[in-house]
Design goal:
Blueprint: H1 3-8, E1 40-41, E2 46-53, E3 57-61, E4 69-74, E5 78-83, E6 86-87, E7 93-94, E8 107-112, H2 116-119, E9 121-127, E10 133-142, E11 145-157, E12 169-171, E13 177-180, E14 206-210, E15 238-241, E16 248-251, E17 258-262, E18 268-274, H3 276-279, E19 289-290, E20 293-294, E21 308-311, E22 319-324, E23 337-341, E24 348-353, E25 356-363, E26 372-377, E27 383-387, E28 391-397
Parallel strand pairs: 1-25
Antiparallel strand pairs: 2-28, 3-4, 4-5, 5-6, 5-7, 8-9, 9-10, 10-11, 12-13, 13-14, 14-15, 16-17, 17-18, 18-21, 19-20, 22-23, 23-24, 24-25, 26-27, 27-28
């Protein structure tokens, strides 16, 4: 994709700098670009292996225990199967007729049920034609093709603006579905007196937790252990709140810690780290603060502090959350959380804990990525890097 087009999309993709004074163009980048502001961590024994070229890819994941396939989510509404290293010509799923794609809208997330091998069920998150956000269930027809007629709507959210749509779906270690939602868009979360993210009566600006399976006459059920079940005025689906646009979040495959890349407004990008238990009812601060800095609306008590903050003065515009590496083939990175930024395009690694980030530095041996839209993880725990420009790559030993 031409650099000029990628630059035009820097504010368009669902990474959240749009709708605020933080909208920026991408710098000119090349595959061997370096950054004096990014000292390298000792991991020079790694490289990127090309997986393929796709149309505006936003995410990569794989069915549980399937060692042959990865699935590439394209913004326009298609999911492409890569089987044994080769992209198949027939999409696994095509919901483009249901999707509004462009700007920050589109097919944004995919998660396979933990019992997918038996049930064949999986879930997608997309922007509907009417602008609402929807989580829908589908069922596998074959290993390489879904049944489009199996569509079932699970959850629909009103969305007042076209940006800050979240989009990440993950099944947690508890087998429940976690859903990342943006604050509703615009700039500064100007929704009501306190904003959507701090309003427990809104599903926006949150991490939601549900059991997506049909429950009698209901499309899904809410776990009784969710923190706000029974509280007057609160949505029972809410698990964590105070998020601006948690575009990508993940669970560590070892221990299950929750790590969120929450996109900032005009000044600060942040990464949040917490155990699942600590995340229950946890407030991550937006819009009262942006990262570790005051923003709007008073003071906070007991909010979860970010473990990494990066500023727009450093060239950042929209943090791209990643994964803790558990790939045994990458010993130099094992246990490090990899993340980056849509504009800066440099891949960083750090060891995270509740007290902060240790050894936070650029991963040596990996090139700068133009339009770094996402990371992904397959059934083996191998990590993928996604560029909105089309390239999908896997991190491998050199």
């Amino acid at each position: 994709m031409p650099t000029a087009l990628i630059a035009a999309l820097a504010c368009a993709i669902s990474l959240g700098a749009c709708g605020s004074s933080a909208a920026r163009e991408l710098p000119n980048t090349t595959s061997d670009a370096t950054s004096a502001a990014a000292p390298a961590t000792a991991a020079s024994g790694v490289k990127l292996v090309n997986v393929g070229k796709f149309k505006m890819p936003l995410y990569v994941t794989a069915p549980p225990k399937d060692l042959r396939r990865v699935m590439v989510v394209q913004q326009g509404g298609r999911i492409i199967v890569v089987r044994d290293g080769k992209a198949l010509s027939t999409p696994f799923l095509d919901v483009s007729s249901r999707v509004t794609a462009g700007g920050e809208q589109g097919l944004l997330g995919l998660a396979f049920a933990p019992d997918y091998a038996k049930s064949g069920l999986f879930y997608v998150y997309f922007t509907r034609r009417d602008g609402k956000q929807e989580v829908a269930e589908f069922k596998r027809a074959t290993s390489d093709r879904a049944s489009i007629s199996s569509y079932r709507s699970v959850l629909v959210m009103d969305d007042p603006e076209g940006n800050h749509n979240g989009g990440q779906l993950n099944f947690g270690p508890d087998g429940l579905l976690y859903i990342g939602t943006g604050d509703g868009g615009g700039g500064g979360d100007q929704h009501g007196t306190i904003g959507n993210a701090q309003n427990l009566g809104s599903m926006l600006g949150k991490i939601l937790r549900i059991d997506p399976r049909r429950a009698a006459t209901k499309a899904y059920s809410v776990p009784s252990s969710n923190p706000f079940v029974g509280r007057a005025g609160a949505r029972p689906e809410v698990y964590s709140y105070g998020l601006r646009n948690p575009w990508r979040f993940s669970f560590d495959r070892v221990g299950g810690d929750l790590i969120i890349g929450d996109v900032g407004e005009a000044t600060v990008e942040e990464v949040d780290f917490t155990s699942i238990a600590q995340a229950s009812g946890g407030n991550f601060g937006w819009r009262v603060r942006e990262g570790d800095q005051p923003f709007s609306g008073g003071t906070l008590s007991g909010a979860i502090e970010p473990v990494i903050v990066r500023t727009h003065d450093e060239g950042w515009c929209s943090v791209t959350g990643g994964y803790v590496v558990r790939d045994a083939a990458l010993p130099s990175l094992r246990g490090k959380y990899l993340y980056g930024d849509f504009c800066e395009g440099i891949i960083y690694g750090a060891r995270l804990s509740s007290s902060g980030a240790a050894g936070n530095a650029r991963v040596s041996g990996l090139p700068q990525i133009a339009a770094l839209s996402s990371f992904g993880e397959d059934a083996r725990g191998r990590i993928y890097v996604v560029s909105l420009g089309g390239a999908v790559s896997r991190i491998a030993a050199r």
